[in-house]
Each structure stands twice: as structure tokens, then as C-alpha cells.
Amino acid sequence: MTSDPVYRDYRLTDQNVNRPFAKVSPALRTVGALSSTGYVEYNGLLLKFQRRSANHISFMNSYTFGRAIDLNSDNDGTVTLTDIFHPEYNRGPADSDVTHTFSSNWIYEMPWAAQHPWGGWQLSGIMYLRSGLPITITQSQSMLSTGLTNNRPNTICDPVSSSPTIAQGFNTSCFQQVADTTGTFGNTGRNSVRGPGQFNIDASVIKNTKIGPVASEIRIEVFNLLNHAQFANPNAQFGNSAFGTISAMLANPSCALCGTTERQMQLAVKLKF
How far apart are CA 212 and CA 118, in angstroms? Predict the structure, then answer.
């Protein structure tokens, strides 16, 4: 590369620097490109420990250590790459990549007075833990030679925080605006930061009673038993006033109409005759 300052000024100001066909036709600014290529890779380790029903108790525990890598996690057939001439620039963890996942479920049928009307109690629960989902850091400054509004900034240190908070989910000082807003991509990798993990326990108490031909079931269910806060990912746009701040909760996976993941309780009664 030449050190001629005129060349440097040209590279910083010419908006056609990433438009290879502009020299052929100066009026040609935007060209669409389609390719049937792609890249998806997944590797994982699954461990399961299970006890089938014996002595009134059963449980199953499972742990997954996995890694999913791709170029873009959209699946609607119109995937967009940041730099079509260098697809590997987008290579990184998939949007749904979770490194650690642990789940446990158990059922305990209390043997106490099982054959009497005041017996027939059953306790059950589900516990779920996972590490955080990946986040792609973008910058508010667009890239003038491509029209991209999601160019990534430069990373100047490790953004992982040892004590993340709601106000700062990661070290926001580790990112820097790309100096050349015309033709330079930032060095921050795709999905290079992780959001908060998730921890949840659901539990239920069931009372089964049978008197003659009539059987009843009373069920009390509690979702998010410990009322543990389930935070969504923080804002990931460098240059935004809310950058790094968590401002939302995860949706409730157990009920699409229940709002966010605060503790939910429900009571149900069933009669069979």
C-alpha cells in the first residue's frame, strides 16, 4: 500500500471504494448478488442421568455442552451478509447458540395414606439453567460505501464483565468507532458478546382423590417458583444512549399470553365420574 497522503484521503472519502462496478459504470451504485452457498456447523456433548419410577420417585437430568456456528441465522431464504466478498467476516456463533444447558425434572408420589381419601399427593418440578445467548455489537454510524447501517465497531479489549449489571451488561468501553466511515469494516466479530443466562424452576402439587365412582384431581402449579428475574439481552448498538443497558425481560415460555417471566400461579380442579 502506498503512503501517499492523496491516496489515503481518496480512500477515506470515495464512497465507491467498495463498489467494484462503479469504475465500469459510474452511475451504477447498488448491485444485488445471490448465491446458493452457506455454512452451518454444530458440535455438542449430551449427558443424561435418569431414574425410572421406583420407590415412588422418578427423575431425569440432562446436560448439553454445544456450539453452533454459521454465517447468518436467518432461515427465510434471503440471508444477508455484511461483506459479500468475504463471507468469513460473518462467521461466528449462531443467534441461538447456547454453550451450557442443564435441565432436571422429577416426580414424587407421596406414599403417605395412599389408599385413603386424605392421601394421593404428588409433587413434581422442572428446573432449567442455560448460559447466555450471543449478541452482535453494531455501531450507529453507517458505512458510506455500502449503505450498511449495521457495520460493527472495533474491539479494543475484552468486553466480558466479571460483574455484569442491568445498567451495564458488558464492558461498553471496549468498543471504538471505526475511524474510516467510508470503506473500513470494524474488527468486532459477529455474536462476540453474551447476554445474561436463564434460571427457572416450575413446580406443582397434585391431590388425587377417589371415592366410589367419582375421582377428582386438584392441581396447583407455580411457574418461576423463586420469582427469579429473567433478563433479555442488553442494547447492542454502539453510539446509542442505551448501549449495554438491559431494558426488557424475557417472554414467558410457559404461556404466550402471560407476559414476562414473573411468578405465575394457577389452580385447576377436575372431576371424573
Answer: 14
